Amino acid sequence: MSIRPASPQDRSAMIALDSVARTDPQRAAQIGDWLRHYRCLVAEAQGAVVAYAVTHRHFFGCAFIEMVMVADAQRRNGLAAGLVAWIQADCPGQKLFTSTNRSNLPMRHLLARMGFVESGFVEHLDEGDPELVYFCQCP
Asked: Most exposed residue of 6, 53, 84, 95, measured as fewest CB within 10 angstroms of its CB?
């Protein structure tokens, strides 16, 4: 696996691997917006884009991981952990936040392994499935 900054040329590959964007034109458009305005990373395996992450600094001036997405067939191969570790290494000594739904147990376990702790929650984004906010002090 290799990780690199994403470019506009990665848009189609990011949409293709995104389980939401394949059927939701709004997510596909959002990926284009992320590529234009946020920091995007892609993970490649055997020359193909198989995962991506999106970060920004619009969360009270702190770094925030907006999205981590791994292709269905590539899950549980360490790609998300690699992307999160790359992001953590890129913000030494800084506060890093992210969030995920309470129901997203794989992501919650990953965040715990990566040194994140729960920092709060937001109700009513996805009815009946609160968004949990996580914090990590980058090493």
From this structure: 95
State the Cα–Cα distance between residues 64 and 98, nearest whole angstrom: 5
pLDDT tens per residue across span 66-113: 999 999 999 999 999 999 999 999 998 899 999 999 999 999 999 999
**Sign of the torsion formed by the C-alpha atoms of 22, 18, 58 and 130:** positive
pLDDT in tens, 6-44: 999 999 999 999 999 988 999 999 999 999 999 999 999
Q: How many domains does the chain have?
A: 1
| CATH code at position 39 | 3.40.630.30
Q: Which domain holds residue 85?
A: 2-137
pTM over 0.85: yes
Strand segments (E) across 6-122: 39-45, 48-59, 62-70, 95-101, 117-122
- For 17, counting Cβ atoms within 10 Å of its Cβ (0-12 exposed, 13-18 middle, 19+ buried), the class is buried
